[in-house]
């Protein structure tokens, strides 16, 4: 049958999803568990109001289904015909939500109080966004690389200039070596293979 | 007119003869850079060809054009179009030993335009390609967190709920469009420079500069990592992917053949275009890289090997991508069904476990029979695995939205995220090496920079210039500019240039001379297959693809997809028309590289005509001087 909506202005519907939360380890929902729920709610009310002495009898349960879902209302300990307003119940539940969840090994999602939305976790904002740290490391490595590159090319140039002036006489004897790129020139520059003249300039 | 005569009599003077080449080879004279070993050359070429397109374009084409059936046109066109063009570029570069401008001006001065066109296209592509690298770097930097920032929506200002834009779309969409790009609703709003993107952009160009600063001396070392790492990462993802639930659904979806697609001409067109762009032909980079080889390198073998590697990589990458996509689709499908099941359980207060995936349809049917109005009111979502599998799986959408979402569902997500983005970065960087080579070498050949400048200075100046111009792409509207450049700058001009290349080599340089060259270089003449493809088949295919592409592009009104939170169908992207001033930009992007071929030819022709008289005058002058010197010597003897 379709779930009924009770005309209970001061009551809350509770929905429990044991199998979703615990899977194989799900315990059976029986009368003892219902009693435990009543005790937990009484505890929550006591914690919130601090002066009143709430008891298990003050938590009234009804419309239990196999889903597992049920409605509950809270009566005042002084006058059992008077119901505690919805807003106060909500405050009590919110205050002890974490304890209630843990009592049943459930979470906000699997122990639902329909109408009481869980508060969103405050986002953790670190002082330095983590990406800036990684960026800093990478840029640092890149800068070191660029500086190393420039220094090595300067050193190569200086070595080449020294080499050219010292053994000017040995140039003819030295073999024409293969060249890695245009900078490292050991040996006589063979003008027979220069490309300058061949180009049809624009 | 004299200049219309296509006389190539002076060709021998412009190109090195066989004897000169042998001498170069044996004595190792000359100042042209060389590869340290064959492996460096092969890795560089593989890296250039295997790029982001293999990962995010080919799988989409494969899946949308009939899965396994797409392999047929792809392989056929690979053999008829890709391999011959590749062999041609390798051979001509190795023979003439120059960069793209040098090669074409040596073949015939009027063809210098081809080289200039290649340079322009390489330049335009480099500009936007490195911005994609900047995006990859941004995601990479943000992967070093326990909870990946794109796995959940941020909380809004007063902490009452999630940010509306994110809630209506999805965390990954929001992260991509808002926190990464901060995209504007249309291309007219520039949105200003996004500082975090500028930082990533600058670091991408700085990293590229280090790798290319000394030409192949530095890139040759870098490719050992950038070309091999993607394969390692793909393998890791394959193993990881196959162990995830639902991965085989993805692979099946990818390869299930639909033979009817073969009747569709778009399939063949897309296959041809994909083969062409995948091989990075007509950029000039392949020519340059081949020219650093030894003269007797077997370019025929290289072309075949590279083609096989490229094709195999595309198929391999597609498999890996679709295992992960299959996993994501299955997860989404499961979530969808679970959501529906929960709704049913809650509405009808049924015990948990009563409705499972297996009996869901049955239960729904029976409930619909008894309580039809209630079921209607529930608005249950239709869960279709196939629709999840075919969601937005192309281009940047694949990498930054679909794949990142899949990664958030995997355990130990930051590790997979870091690996994935390193792989994308290496794929892109190795392609950038080729692009930049296609820009730097022609600039050096044209003599734009003074000869006294060292290589590092030339590379540095080019990088700084490209970085500055590339700032267009890190504005709010940068994404729209990038797709504009991609659609018009990197497509039609390449087809024109490749066609001119083929015609230039086969008919202007002379196919007979080309055959002799290859015989000199590798020891045997190219066989009948090459002759037929070079002369007729490949140019014909290029021409057909070009005509169809051109017609389709010209006929459709250029539209772009915009992320507009205020649009009606949000989060679906809104299709908008480009404003009228964009047409000028489109003309610059597509027209200038393409038109540079005929325009340079005309310019050279005109200059030749008016300078001809001057040349004759100089020759007479020289003769007179020689005569006078002879007289002086004669007199001295007397």
From TrEMBL, chain A:
<keyword id="KW-0597">Phosphoprotein</keyword>
<keyword id="KW-1003">Cell membrane</keyword>
<protein>
    <recommendedName>
        <fullName>Collectrin-like domain-containing protein</fullName>
    </recommendedName>
</protein>
<keyword id="KW-1133">Transmembrane helix</keyword>
<keyword id="KW-0732">Signal</keyword>
<keyword id="KW-0812">Transmembrane</keyword>
<dbReference type="Pfam" id="PF16959">
    <property type="entry name" value="Collectrin"/>
</dbReference>
<keyword id="KW-0472">Membrane</keyword>
<keyword id="KW-0325">Glycoprotein</keyword>
<dbReference type="InterPro" id="IPR031588">
    <property type="entry name" value="Collectrin_dom"/>
</dbReference>
<feature type="domain" description="Collectrin-like">
    <location>
        <begin position="8"/>
        <end position="202"/>
    </location>
</feature>
<dbReference type="GO" id="GO:0005886">
    <property type="term" value="C:plasma membrane"/>
</dbReference>
<dbReference type="InterPro" id="IPR042944">
    <property type="entry name" value="Collectrin"/>
</dbReference>
<feature type="transmembrane region" description="Helical">
    <location>
        <begin position="131"/>
        <end position="155"/>
    </location>
</feature>
<dbReference type="GO" id="GO:0070062">
    <property type="term" value="C:extracellular exosome"/>
</dbReference>
<dbReference type="GO" id="GO:0051957">
    <property type="term" value="P:positive regulation of amino acid transport"/>
</dbReference>
From TrEMBL, chain B:
<feature type="transmembrane region" description="Helical">
    <location>
        <begin position="41"/>
        <end position="58"/>
    </location>
</feature>
<dbReference type="Pfam" id="PF00209">
    <property type="entry name" value="SNF"/>
</dbReference>
<feature type="binding site">
    <location>
        <position position="431"/>
    </location>
    <ligand>
        <name>Na(+)</name>
    </ligand>
</feature>
<feature type="binding site">
    <location>
        <position position="50"/>
    </location>
    <ligand>
        <name>Na(+)</name>
    </ligand>
</feature>
<feature type="transmembrane region" description="Helical">
    <location>
        <begin position="457"/>
        <end position="476"/>
    </location>
</feature>
<keyword id="KW-1133">Transmembrane helix</keyword>
<keyword id="KW-0812">Transmembrane</keyword>
<keyword id="KW-0769">Symport</keyword>
<keyword id="KW-0915">Sodium</keyword>
<feature type="transmembrane region" description="Helical">
    <location>
        <begin position="222"/>
        <end position="242"/>
    </location>
</feature>
<comment type="similarity">
    <text>Belongs to the sodium:neurotransmitter symporter (SNF) (TC 2.A.22) family.</text>
</comment>
<dbReference type="GO" id="GO:0015293">
    <property type="term" value="F:symporter activity"/>
</dbReference>
<keyword id="KW-0472">Membrane</keyword>
<feature type="binding site">
    <location>
        <position position="427"/>
    </location>
    <ligand>
        <name>Na(+)</name>
    </ligand>
</feature>
<feature type="transmembrane region" description="Helical">
    <location>
        <begin position="193"/>
        <end position="210"/>
    </location>
</feature>
<keyword id="KW-0479">Metal-binding</keyword>
<feature type="binding site">
    <location>
        <position position="47"/>
    </location>
    <ligand>
        <name>Na(+)</name>
    </ligand>
</feature>
<feature type="transmembrane region" description="Helical">
    <location>
        <begin position="304"/>
        <end position="325"/>
    </location>
</feature>
<dbReference type="GO" id="GO:0031526">
    <property type="term" value="C:brush border membrane"/>
</dbReference>
<dbReference type="InterPro" id="IPR000175">
    <property type="entry name" value="Na/ntran_symport"/>
</dbReference>
<feature type="transmembrane region" description="Helical">
    <location>
        <begin position="271"/>
        <end position="292"/>
    </location>
</feature>
<feature type="transmembrane region" description="Helical">
    <location>
        <begin position="581"/>
        <end position="603"/>
    </location>
</feature>
